[in-house]
């Protein structure tokens, strides 16, 4: 089967660090073109990664008939308009999270994909990692009994005023950058949709972005997800799934290095010292490569991709409700 020919919009850091190497390594992908608003920058990156075509504008890349799919890692405020532009140009689109910042915007993308007859997916690479797949399988098997709660901590430190994550007018802030992972984690692992949320935020007085956000998400059957995300704190990633008969701990849950054999810890809760603990070692995996391969297979098969439009709508509705909750100081319903 012919590989999917990919183009990448911009020379963003996430592309250079993760997606460009992933696309080059993927078995069913061909990294064909890259675009930047600075042509010399596009040419430099093209040479670095052995990419055949370099463009000095996004429009030029989208007009290239040799490209089947594009990866959109642009700043958050450009996810929706550029993704819709790409769909109208006949391209399939893998868009960085958050695909949209509101439910209404996510629905616009879903409609554009339907009209164009093209695939679109939100780039939650975590759902492709073996430790996430194994954890969900174990939950379905009842390994820790009925799951009741998930706790997430995701933090890093970034105080660069020029960084897009610190600019509120283009979708910066902790909730949209990394809080969306916590939302996706609950929806993925519980296998259900949020009912209501509450949240508190601390905003940077200069940037205006939320630098510390904590939230609670209520799911059906009384299950909860609680999370804290921070953009000006120590580097940390933790996730715990609590069940009636045990709990699971993830190993670097969101940014597990591709050469690291992740350890999924399953504890039966028989004591507080871990005597009932078992550790499953998962093979090293590049979750970005797995993501590109799965999306390319969906394009060829016509089957819905993982993290497709319906998922993006639910994720956006939840993060939107969390923003409202932080402003209102109360519980907000999640409606889709």
Indicate the CATH topology of the largest domain.
Dihydrodipicolinate Reductase, domain 2
CATH top level of the largest domain is Alpha Beta
Distance between the termini: 38 Å
Rg, Å, rounded: 20 Å
Question: Number of helix segments?
Answer: 9
In short:
Keywords: Oxidoreductase. This protein is α/β, with parallel strands linked by helices.
Structure commentary:
The chain is α/β, with parallel strands linked by helices and 336 residues long. It has 2 domains: 4-125 and 289-304, NAD(P)-binding Rossmann-like Domain (Rossmann fold), CATH 3.40.50.720; 129-285 and 317-333, 2-Layer Sandwich (Dihydrodipicolinate Reductase, domain 2), CATH 3.30.360. The protein contains 9 helices and 15 strands. The chain starts with a strand and ends with a strand.
């Amino acid at each position: 089967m012919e590989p999917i020919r990919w183009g990448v919009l911009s020379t963003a850091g996430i592309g250079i660090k993760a997606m460009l190497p992933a696309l080059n390594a993927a078995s069913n992908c061909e990294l064909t073109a890259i675009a930047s608003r600075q042509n010399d920058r596009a040419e430099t990156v093209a040479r670095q990664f052995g990419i055949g075509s370099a463009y000095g504008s996004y429009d030029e890349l989208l007009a290239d008939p040799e490209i089947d799919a594009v990866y959109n890692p642009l700043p958050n405020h450009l996810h929706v308009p550029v993704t819709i532009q790409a769909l109208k140009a006949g391209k399939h689109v893998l868009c960085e999270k958050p695909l949209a910042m509101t439910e209404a915007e996510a629905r616009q993308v879903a409609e554009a994909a339907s009209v164009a007859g093209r695939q679109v997916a939100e780039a939650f690479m975590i759902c492709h990692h073996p430790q996430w797949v194994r954890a969900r399988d174990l939950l379905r098997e009842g390994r820790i009994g009925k799951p009741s709660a998930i706790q997430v901590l995701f933090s890093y430190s970034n105080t660069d005023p020029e960084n897009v994550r610190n600019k509120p007018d283009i979708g910066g802030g902790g909730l949209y950058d990394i809080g969306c992972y916590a939302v996706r984690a609950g929806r993925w692992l519980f296998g259900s949709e949020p009912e209501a949320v509450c949240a508190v935020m601390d905003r940077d007085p200069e940037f205006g972005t939320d630098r510390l956000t904590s939230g609670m998400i209520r799911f059906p059957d009384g299950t909860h997800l609680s999370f804290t995300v921070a953009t000006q704190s120590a580097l940390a990633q933790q996730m715990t799934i609590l069940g009636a008969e045990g709990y699971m701990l993830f190993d670097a849950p969101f940014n597990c290095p591709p050469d690291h054999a992740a350890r999924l810890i399953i504890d039966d809760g028989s004591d507080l010292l871990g005597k009932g603990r078992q550790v499953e070692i998962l093979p090293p995996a590049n979750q970005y490569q797995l993501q590109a391969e799965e999306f390319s297979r969906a394009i060829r098969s016509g089957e819905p991709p993982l993290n497709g439009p319906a998922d993006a709508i639910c994720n956006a509705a939840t993060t939107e409700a969390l923003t409202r909750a932080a402003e209102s100081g109360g519980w907000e319903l999640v409606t889709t």
